[in-house]
């Protein structure tokens, strides 16, 4: 049996080393890919509720629901001097004050020149945010 020449020997060990290095590298990459996958899954799980909550805010279903239940009794038909939703003239002067100012009055309640608006429409269980979203819903349909 003929022994390998020095060059052959050197190239053989070189091949072995590079195979080992590339194997080692790919394992590290696999590990990295696994970690990235884990990271994205985690990001997705943590991020999804935010995506859904922002969708809800965007189409304002919360504001609509609150309006229907707690504000429409007065604001749909203009009972007791309440500005009717959709009546641009009745809302014009109010809208000019800005939505935040209107929401603040709706939250605290107030006696205006046309009637009495009870705090939170008479339902103290509503949060400020809920009253604000109902105000936004009403104003969007009245300007
Ligand atoms: C009992 C009847 C009644 C209910 C229920 C009611 N409102 Fe009112 N609201 C009024 C009246 C009356 C006014 C007008 C007061 C005025 O300007 O004289 C008014 C005015 C407002 C205004 C205008 C504020 C401004 O700056 O002029 C907003 C906004 C408003 N209401 C929001 C709401 C929201 C939101 C709800 C439900 C959570 C609600 N209201 C429920 C009677 C009501």
Q: What fold name goes in the CATH topology slot of the largest domain?
A: Cytochrome Bc1 Complex, Chain D, domain 2
For the sheet with most strands, the description reads: 2 strands, antiparallel
- Looking at CATH, the homologous superfamily of the largest domain is Cytochrome c-like domain
Rg measurement, Å: 33 Å
Extended strand count: 2
Estimate nothing, just give the exact number of structural domains: 2
Helices and strands, in N-to-C order?
HHHHEEH
Beta-strand fraction estimate: under 5%
Q: How many H/I helical runs?
A: 5
Question: Structural class per helix/strand content?
Answer: mainly alpha
Mean pLDDT across all amino acids: 79
Shape: rod-shaped
Low-confidence stretches: 9-19, 52-59
User: Distance N terminus to C terminus?
Assistant: 98 Å
Biggest sheet: strand arrangement: 1-2
Class of the largest domain, according to the CATH hierarchy? Mainly Alpha
Q: Any idea what the CATH architecture of the largest domain is? A: Orthogonal Bundle
**Fraction of residues in helix:** over 70%
The small molecules bound here are: heme C
